[in-house]
Design a protein that fits this description.
Blueprint (H helix, E strand, L loop, with lengths): L1 H20 L2 H15 L8 H41 L2 H22 L13 E7 L3 H21 L3 E9 L5 E9 L3 H5 L4 E8 L8 E12 L14 E6 L15 E6 L4 E5 L5 H32 L10 E6 L5 E4 L5 E2 L2 H5 L4 H13 L2
Parallel strand pairs: 4-9
Antiparallel strand pairs: 1-3, 1-5, 2-3, 4-5, 6-7, 7-8, 9-10, 10-11
Helix pairs in contact: 1-3, 1-4, 2-3, 3-4
């Protein structure tokens, strides 16, 4: 019993430390302020803003409630163990030990959020997949990755909105861009940015030869409206065209799809998910701002690495993860060396362990 009480004390101290790191008190106050704002007359006049604030308040309240309940459960268990120790009741000791193990497991999952320490980790995400060289195999691989991420997004109870999607002529997709809506989505998904490599016997090869395919995954945070990224009208070219579905069939009779090119950087954004040309342009410009912000951040980091004398790693052509189907089964992350043989589960959206290992790797090396 004494050992259990000591372990509970250690767990409680870890919880309090994590509580401070996550600034739960501030989040509780923030949720209260949002609820007060929601009670102001006319709050729902701006539906878009009102829905956003109410969702944020709900998410903050859920997080605060989870941590508050967890602290109370530890206190309750400490009191139970103290009673069992006083009465010498072995049955209480067994029950308390089982509850402690369950609390410890839950805490490890809650503690994971401490690893989210970047400015935009809570933000929504713009996720893009581009098929690499390799023809139909690469396009098929890009579609497999698309399904993998959509399954992960579904498991996390987030929402995915396809912004632009170009299908291959025979199979697969050439590219897809989607907006992922969900708290902490960027914090999780940023680990997936880079080149993903597949090794398998090609289903498109009559001789059943083994092929290697590549696809590039691009992850950027959706910037909040408060962030100011200046884009001059003279720096962009806007083209409009008819939206298209699979096989190039026209799905709109008006030129509602929008292609925006930022001339100085060469960045191109296409949006054709909305029926309105104005809405598509607005979405495309928002994504362009996020891409320009990410580009500025990467250039800044590259300059800092150069000043420190560190070797720069090329993002293109250097895979972050390999997925091997034949002659054996394995998924390996080349940054963290974490690997698993259960490739089917990974391709079905079981990505959390890879993401956790990546975040811990970054924390250790920062």
């Amino acid at each position: 019993m004494e050992n259990l009480l000591k372990n509970l004390e250690i767990l409680r101290e870890r919880v309090l430390k994590t509580w401070q790191l996550l600034d739960i008190d501030r989040k509780e106050a923030q949720a209260v302020e949002m609820r007060q704002e929601m009670n102001i007359p006319g709050f729902w006049d701006d539906q878009k803003k009102a829905v956003k604030i109410s969702q944020q308040a709900e998410e903050l309240e859920k997080e605060v409630r989870e941590w508050t309940n967890f602290k109370r459960e530890i206190t309750d268990l400490e009191e139970l163990v103290a009673v069992g120790q006083e009465e010498g009741d072995d049955s209480i000791a067994e029950e308390a030990q089982a509850q402690f193990e369950e609390l410890k497991t839950r805490f490890e999952k809650l503690e994971f959020y401490v690893l989210f320490n970047s400015k935009y980790d809570e933000a929504n995400t713009i996720l893009s997949i581009h098929a690499g060289t390799g023809g139909v195999d690469a396009q098929d691989w890009a579609q497999i990755l698309e399904r993998m991420f959509l399954r992960f997004i579904e498991k996390m109870n987030w929402q995915a909105e396809i912004i632009d999607r170009t299908v291959g002529q025979e199979a697969g997709i050439k590219s897809v861009t989607m907006r992922v809506k969900g708290r902490w989505s960027y914090g999780y998904l940023k680990s997936e940015s880079g080149v993903h490599r597949l090794v398998r016997i090609s289903p498109f090869d009559a001789e059943a030869m083994r092929h290697t395919s590549f696809a590039l995954v691009e992850i950027i945070p959706e910037l909040p409206e408060t962030e100011k990224i200046e884009i001059k009208d003279s720096d962009i070219r806007v083209d409009v065209f008819k939206s298209s579905g699979p096989g190039g069939q026209g799905v709109n009779t008006t030129d509602s799809a929008v292609r925006v090119k930022h001339e100085p950087s060469g960045i191109v954004v296409v949006c054709q998910n909305e029926r309105s040309q104005h809405q598509n342009k607005e979405t495309a410009l928002k994504i362009l701002k996020s891409k320009l912000f990410k580009k500025e951040e990467e250039e800044k980091q590259a300059r800092e690495r150069k000043l420190r004398g560190e070797a720069q790693k090329a993002e293109w052509g250097k895979q972050i993860r390999s997925y091997v189907m034949q002659p054996y089964k394995m998924v390996k992350d080349h940054r963290t060396n974490y690997e698993t043989q259960d490739i089917d589960a990974v391709l079905d959206g079981d990505l959390e362990k890879f993401m956790e290992e990546y975040l811990r790797h970054i924390a250790r090396n920062s």
